[in-house]
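Progress note, project year one: complex with cobalamin.
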Amino acid sequence: MENNISNFMEALLSINRIAARQILESSTSIDRISFIENVVIPALERIGKGWQDGVFALSQVYMAGRICEELIDEILPPGDPDRKDQPKMAICVLSDRHKLGKTIVYSLLRSSGFDLLDYGTMEVEELVERIKNDKIEIILVSVLMLHSALKVKHLKEKLDALNLDVKIVVGGAPFRFDKQLWQEVGADAMCSTASEAVLVIKNVMDGSL
Ligand code: B12
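Model obtained:
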């Protein structure tokens, strides 16, 4: 796996789409979601850290993100047509431009048989309106920046003020870095990976959350 991560990282840093795709295609021993979670995400995180440490340029971070976006769009499985009985759900990126995590969670949930709306990138006010109008019962929120994560608190306050009974499920880097943050902002659950979302939704459905 370590070899895969460093080769994939090298392909991204040299903006070599062909090499990145070849590494993905030759990794036949793991499924595509595992490839994303065990190779793509660690590679992007190391590149992000390298940028923070002054080793890589922001343009490299940007191009690495773009290449992964293109690859992920192609490889994620299509929606499962056999939808299950389920609460009304939507997913969004809150006040942030980091869309990859949301795209992965959205596709994974759809391919696991869940139906959900994709709100794209939202600010708190418009998100509350959409939740109210669409009668959403579970809102999945993805953020990658701390200041966006803190806005979940504002979202929770607005939903409470309107007496809307909505479960807030959050995910993304700030919540993985600070394990208490999801509770501090008033979320109902936090997921470290896209796959965990399936379990959380099942818990909401059986009333244990
Ligand atoms: C790629 C990247 C970008 C790309 C984004 C491309 C895109 N379309 O998404 C670009 C170059 C555009 C970018 C821009 C910026 N970035 Co940036 N970026 C990253 C980087 C390197 C990787 C992020 C990523 O895509 N990871 C892969 C995805 C798939 O992982 P993920 O989001 O964590 O998602 C997984 C799980 O967390 C989970 N998950 C995520 N959300 C949810 C939600 C739910 C409900 C569930 C169930 C699960 C779940 O499931 C996913 C799959 O398992 C990170 C570094 C890092 N450590 O994360 C910095 C990082 C997030 N960026 C950062 C910064 C500062 C910026 C900029 C401000 C830089 C600048 N000066 O312009 C801008 C801001 C843009 C904006 N306004 O939003 C900082 C944030 C710091 C902070 N504490 O706030 C980071 C942490 C880098 C750093 N170390 O400083 N970035």
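The pocket of cobalamin is lined by residues 37, 41, 44-45, 47-49, 52, 61-62, 65, 69, 96-101, 104-105, 140-142, 144-146, 169-173, 176, 191, 193-194, 197 (CB under 6 Å).
The domain at 2-75 is CATH 1.10.1240.10 (Methyltransferase, Methionine Synthase (B12-binding Domains); Chain A, domain 1).
No further modelling is planned for this target in the current period.
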